[in-house]
């Protein structure tokens, strides 16, 4: 069986190459830019492999009732739109994807928005959206005979990579910035058996070291410069469109770190439109943390055309990234969909995270930038009350329990950071109280909480 119908196209100069010719660092030999996977058979003119929209919608729905592993994956269920393997039998899956789309009723009410949803990618097998990209790219690595895979990470990519490598019987190498990732994520890499190296540098430094390393050893790079990662990460766009009966929401709001996820979701919606599965695109907006905001700065200064890296600082460690690899791809998605790129403060992130927690969902700090960003866009009149809005929550709340406990115990934010927002913070805080082991003390605690 040959299911493989793709080529790689350079995002910068348009040069094409086959997947197997790509350099170990996935940079174009001619211009140094990143590649994108394209499927020439889908084009209108030569379209002998152009998928039939009606048949696909039916097939993808039928697969939800199938007991076959590949069909149960929310990524490979859509395999007609990611023909990147010679044989789909090589796919390594943990039944990723098919994540829930939740209504955020209370937050919607307070923002005066009729329909606000959270697409919770933290409900994936390793607790983050990275699983959807990892099943795709690691399967390519396996098919091409690699024994070792590697990534530099702020934690979630490494957790996902280590898990999928272990499932495939492969070895994995993780480079992470020492002391700058959440414990939950570090523990996952160890649990799944990765060789885990903590480097005395930041994420951007880890990327530099790994890029050199993979040129010197037969190791397959699984950072999001690897274009196959984005093929998996585009599939939540298909799930969202399917959930709205092949319509799209008005707004999709995504956190921005290395900027691959926003790029991938944009690609997913673009392909759906090109193939006639949906009629239009949602506005895709990217939200960054104030201290790690190179794309937001670039949009403010030059509408996303001139880019300068920053030294990144934020407690949302997942997006503590100053020199994002995919900024050009993300800028194109924002332009093509008429979205925005803005940043939010540490207090805004913490408050938004507590509000998502209070809806019974929870998420990690990096995911909460979406709600913090939505509040700003709404206040600026960029989101109407009748708009359908989807926030992409990228990671599970248990990934970074230390942050959550810090917020509720009052140890997270400085006075300066909370200035002017003390009431909002106090109203959301639910500290764990230490009391006597007696019913009277418990009843007192109940009374105190009612005040
Ligand atoms: N949210 C979470 C929870 C993340 O882990 C990341 C990225 C992002 C958002 C940003 O996505 O990079 O595609 O813009 N985490 C990476 C990692 C960098 O190594 O786990 P992006």
Cα-atom Rg, whole angstroms? 22 Å
Q: Helical content, roughly?
A: 40-55%
Distance between the termini: 67 Å
User: How many strands?
Assistant: 13
Structural class: alpha/beta
- Spans of at least 5 consecutive residues whose pLDDT stays below 50 are none
Give the overall average pLDDT.
Answer: 96
- Please give the count of helices: 18
| Main sheet record | 6 strands, mixed
Shape assignment: globular
**How large is the share of residues in beta strands?**
5-15%
| Spatial order of the strands forming the largest sheet | 4-5-13-10-11-12
Quaternary structure classification: single chain
Named once each, the bound ligands are: ligand F0G
Q: In a nutshell, what does this entry contain?
A:
The chain has 451 residues and is of the alpha/beta class. The chain is built from 18 helices and 13 strands.
Description:
The structure is a single chain. The protein is built from 18 helices and 13 strands. Strand 7, helix 6 and strand 8 form a beta-alpha-beta unit. It has a 6-stranded mixed beta sheet, with helices on both faces. Strands 8-7-6-9 form a 4-stranded parallel beta sheet, with helices on both faces. The radius of gyration is 22 Å and the shape is globular. Helix 4 crosses helix 5, helix 5 packs parallel to helix 6 and helix 9 crosses helix 10. With 451 residues, it is of the alpha/beta class. Ligand F0G binds next to helix 5, helix 10 and helix 14.
Summary tags:
40% helix; alpha/beta; binds ligand F0G; four-stranded parallel sheet; 451 residues; single chain; six-stranded mixed sheet
């Amino acid at each position: 069986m040959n299911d493989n119908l793709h080529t790689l196209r350079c995002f910068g100069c348009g040069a094409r190459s086959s997947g197997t010719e790509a350099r170990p660092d996935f940079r174009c030999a001619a211009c140094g830019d990143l590649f994108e996977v394209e499927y020439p058979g889908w084009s209108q003119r030569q379209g002998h492999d152009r998928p039939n929209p009606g048949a696909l919608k039916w097939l993808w729905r039928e697969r939800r009732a199938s007991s076959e592993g590949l069909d149960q994956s929310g990524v490979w269920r859509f395999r007609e739109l990611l023909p990147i393997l010679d044989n789909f039998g090589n796919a390594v899956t943990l039944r990723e994807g098919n994540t829930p789309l939740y209504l955020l009723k209370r937050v919607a009410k307070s923002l005066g928005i009729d329909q606000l949803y959270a697409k919770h990618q933290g409900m994936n097998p390793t607790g983050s959206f990275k699983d959807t990209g990892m099943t795709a790219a690691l399967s390519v690595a396996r098919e091409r005979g690699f024994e070792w895979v590697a990534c530099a990470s702020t934690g979630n990519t490494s957790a996902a990579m280590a898990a999928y490598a272990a499932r495939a019987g492969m070895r994995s190498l993780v480079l992470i910035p020492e002391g700058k990732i959440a414990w939950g994520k570090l523990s996952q890499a160890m649990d799944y058996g990765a060789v885990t190296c903590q480097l005395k540098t930041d994420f951007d430094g880890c990327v530099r070291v790994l890029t050199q390393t993979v040129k010197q050893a037969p190791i397959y790079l699984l950072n999001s410069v690897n274009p196959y990662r984005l093929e998996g990460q585009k599939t939540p766009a298909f799930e969202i469109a399917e959930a709205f009966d092949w319509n799209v929401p008005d707004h999709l709001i995504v956190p921005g770190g290395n900027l691959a996820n926003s790029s991938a979701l944009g690609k997913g919606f673009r392909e759906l439109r090109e193939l006639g599965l949906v009629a239009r695109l949602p506005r895709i907006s990217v939200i960054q943390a104030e201290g790690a905001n190179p794309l937001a700065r670039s949009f403010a200064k030059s509408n996303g055309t001139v880019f300068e890296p920053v030294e990144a600082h934020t407690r949302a460690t997942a997006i503590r990234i100053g020199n994002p690899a995919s900024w050009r791809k993300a800028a194109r998605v924002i332009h093509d969909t008429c979205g925005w790129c803005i940043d939010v403060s540490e207090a805004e992130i913490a408050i938004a995270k507590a509000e998502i927690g209070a809806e019974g969902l929870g998420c990690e700090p990096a995911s909460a930038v979406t709600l913090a960003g939505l509040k700003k866009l709404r206040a600026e009149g960029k989101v109407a009350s009748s708009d359908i809005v989807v926030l992409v929550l990228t990671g599970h709340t248990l990934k970074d329990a230390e942050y959550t406990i810090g917020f509720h115990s009052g140890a997270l934010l400085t006075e300066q950071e909370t200035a002017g927002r003390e009431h909002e913070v106090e109203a959301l805080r639910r500290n764990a109280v230490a009391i006597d082991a007696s019913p009277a003390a418990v009843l007192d605690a109940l009374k105190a909480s009612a005040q």
